[in-house]
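Weekly modeling sync, notes
Attendees: AB, CL, MP (scribe)

Item 1: holo prediction request
CL wants a bound-state model with NAP before deciding which constructs to order. AB pointed out that an apo prediction alone won't tell us much about the pocket. Agreed to run with the ligand included and paste results into these notes for async review.

Input as submitted:
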Amino acid sequence: MANLTLQSTYILASGFRIPVVGFGVYQTARAATEAVVLKAFETGYRHVDSARAYRNEGPTADAIKKSGIPRSDLFFTTKIRTSEMGYGPSKRALESSFKETGLDYFDLVLIHAPYGGREARLGTWRALVEAQKAGKIRSIGVSNYGVHHLEELDEYIKSGGGGEISVGQWEIHPWLAREDIVDWCRKHNVVVEAYSPLVQGVRANEPVLTALTKKYNKSFAQVLVRWSLQKGLVPLPKTATHSRVGPNIDIFDFELNEEDMKMLETGEYAPVCWDPVKSFD
Ligand SMILES: NC(=O)c1ccc[n+]([C@@H]2O[C@H](COP(=O)([O-])OP(=O)(O)OC[C@H]3O[C@@H](n4cnc5c(N)ncnc54)[C@H](OP(=O)(O)O)[C@@H]3O)[C@@H](O)[C@H]2O)c1
């Protein structure tokens, strides 16, 4: 843990590597995306998390092309949106994302949420597996799946459906630790990404955070990203503010001790984003 850097990686079930922190671009305006992603790359990020729904895949890919960093050193994620579930729509969605980005391959494609019913979920998975086999996608995974959705997919894969769940992405922070899902992923060799790791800024003045920011002389954002990393998650902090890009990940020179990690176990279930995990269709 002490030796991690922004360019450290974990190995995925697919055999490919994923940088341990990613830069989020949800709600980053299309016109502002290229510049802030370039700033993130200059700062040392090598991993960027976009989605079809964010409407900024194109400018994110432009930053990848303009960065001067070898494509193989960068990690680009996109996600199939909820209105594109099912084999045919998802296949067309992928085609549209390749056209929009001009990239030869995607490092990771996730199913954004488990909506649409079993047939649609497994149809989307089949489209991802097909693209993976064709070498267009390196790793595939899911987002916002509940354990029941993960079980459904695992069963399908084990019965010959193909592919492997390399990554899962959920809202995770001290007010929403999702231990059941994280445990499932650990047992099934799925790397867990944490979205809204800064709790979208709304917990900045929580007393427990204030105590830790004072103790470590770090910002609330740095404490939260560090918490995520020490939990073995891949945090995806977002900012569209250039002056926050570097400081938010100035987190490799301190370690929260065991007692402080315990202080951050709130036991709360308080999402700040949507929560499709509990959908039962
Ligand atoms: N799979 C999914 O369903 C899903 C859902 C949500 C998010 N995500 C992914 O996860 C990423 C992160 O999640 P998120 O964007 O919801 O939330 P987040 O990273 O927890 O927080 C982002 C918010 O915090 C603010 N912020 C950032 N640094 C700050 C600082 N140092 N001080 C004060 N405020 C600060 C940002 O404002 P400014 O931008 O104005 O600086 C923005 O409003 C997303 O960008 C996306 O890639 C995925």
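Recorded for review: The pocket of NAP is lined by residues 24-27, 49, 112, 143-144, 169, 195-201, 219, 221, 236-241, 244, 248, 273 (CB under 6 Å).
Action items: CL to compare against the apo run; MP to circulate these notes.
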